[in-house]
Every structure is written in C-alpha cells, then in structure tokens.
C-alpha cells in the first residue's frame, strides 16, 4: 500500500505547483485564455461586416419605400410577359409605326425581363430603372444576347425621362403612380404611340384592348387625341359602308361631299 500513498502525494504536490500564481504560464489553459479575447474580437468584426453588407445590399430595395411614389421591385411573371407581347401582336395594326424598328421603353424595368424579350422580338428596347443593382444585373444578362438591336438600360427617374421618341411604352406601376404617369404620357407621346399598362389601369384613358388574367392583366391604350381620331375615322367608314349598302348614289354623293369639305 505504500507505493500508492507515495504516488498520491506526488500528484498532490504537482497540483499544488500548478495552482501557484507564478506557475500559470506553464498551465495548459493559458493559451486558451490569451486567445479568447482575440476570438471574440474576430467574431464581432465578422458579424459587423456581415450586417453592413446586408444593409448595403438591401438599401436599394428598401429606399423606394421612402420616395413619394413607392415603386417596389416585383419581378414580372412569365405569364405577364407573354400577355404584354400577345396584346402587342394582336393589335399589330395599331402598334405598327412608320419608323423601323419599333422603339419600346419599359418604365421601371426591374431585372430587364420585358426589355430582354423585346430585344429578342426585334424591338429597339430601352429600360429605365432607378435601382442600380437591378440596372447592373440587366446589363449583364442582356450583354450576351444575340440580337440585332442591343438593348439599353438607363439609371434615371422614370418621371423625368422623356418619352417623345418612343413608339411603345410598357408600364409596371403602382396605383399611386398611374395618375402622374398619365399626365406625362399625354404631354410627351407622339400620336402614333401606344401604351401597355400592367397590373393597374390608367385612371382616365379608355383602353383599346385588354387581356384579363388576374394580377397578370394588361391593357392597351392610345393617346386620347389619336384614339378620338381613330374612332372618328371608324365611324366615318361605317357610315359610308352603310350608305353603299343602301344605295350606290348615296355612297358616291357622300364621297364627293367629303372631298369638297376643307377638313
């Protein structure tokens, strides 16, 4: 039993040595105690950098809510994109203009889906977007397109960009924005232009055609002056056709009088 008691005494003496204040440098736990503040500092710096990165990345998507007309980024669905170009194709007689190619602009282009599809369909397409990460993403995705007319993306306010040179205007707006946009369209569009509104209608304009598909609904508009002239021409043609059916003499008399009229 004596050797066991001697070993116990040796272990007790060793423990006493490690417990002395001067012996802490030789303790196995000393490196951990020194590295612990550095580890906490590194973890804190990593968390701060991650938080700043998240704020920096999310800022362009959150700041639209602070503007007068909040226009959040909501990507267009495949059904909505198909409805836009189906409506334009269906009304090709209206949307066809003398200048070739047809110049299309997407107000609030987001990730560039409408502009990308328009470029593939031989439109000369332009996207207007205020969110710079979306502008960069759109330029990157469209840079590899094999199309005749290279699409353009501009980082600017859609209410400040002139629309006088475009033939087709596509709008993915919000309800509060449609009234100011309507006034801008009436002031700047040329008579042969047309407007495709998605999700929300223009409040005071009368649509020419529409596709009702829930949140993917789209409406086609002409400027009020052009729409009124087109309706007048249609009524005139209808009256002449009715006269021709009633009696040929009435038809030729109406044509003769219309030629004599100063307008």
What does this structure look like?
With 263 residues, the protein is of the alpha/beta class. Among the domains are: 78-222, Rossmann fold, CATH 3.40.50.150; 229-260. Helices cover 52% and strands 12% of the residues. It contains nine helices and seven strands, in the order ααααβαβαββαβββαα. The chain has helices at residues 2-19, 30-62, 78-90, 92-95, 113-120, 132-142, 175-188, 224-246, 248-260; strands at residues 103-107, 124-129, 152-155, 168-172, 194-198, 209-211, 218-221. Strands 3-2-1-4-5-7-6 form a seven-stranded mixed sheet, with helices on one face. α8 runs antiparallel to α9 (248-260). The chain starts with a helix and ends with a helix.
Task: Draw up the topology in text.
Elements (H helix, E strand, L loop, with lengths): L1 H18 L10 H33 L15 H13 L1 H4 L7 E5 L5 H8 L3 E6 L2 H11 L9 E4 L12 E5 L2 H14 L5 E5 L10 E3 L6 E4 L2 H23 L1 H13 L3
Parallel strand pairs: 1-2, 1-4, 2-3, 4-5
Antiparallel strand pairs: 5-7, 6-7
Helix pairs in contact: 8-9
Structural class computed from helices and strand pairing: alpha/beta
Estimate percent helicity.
40-55%
Number of helices: 9
The low-confidence runs, each spanning 5 or more residues with pLDDT under 50, are 14-20, 22-26, 228-235
Rg over C-alpha atoms, rounded to the nearest angstrom: 35 Å
Give, in order, the helices and strands.
HHHHEHEHEEHEEEHH
Largest sheet: 7 strands, mixed
Report the CATH topology name of the domain at 78-222.
Rossmann fold
Distance between the termini: 131 Å
Cα shape: elongated
Family: Belongs to the ANT/ATPSC lysine N-methyltransferase family.
InterPro entries: FAM173A/B, SAM-dependent_MTases_sf
GO molecular function, one term: protein-lysine N-methyltransferase activity
Organism: Macrostomum lignano
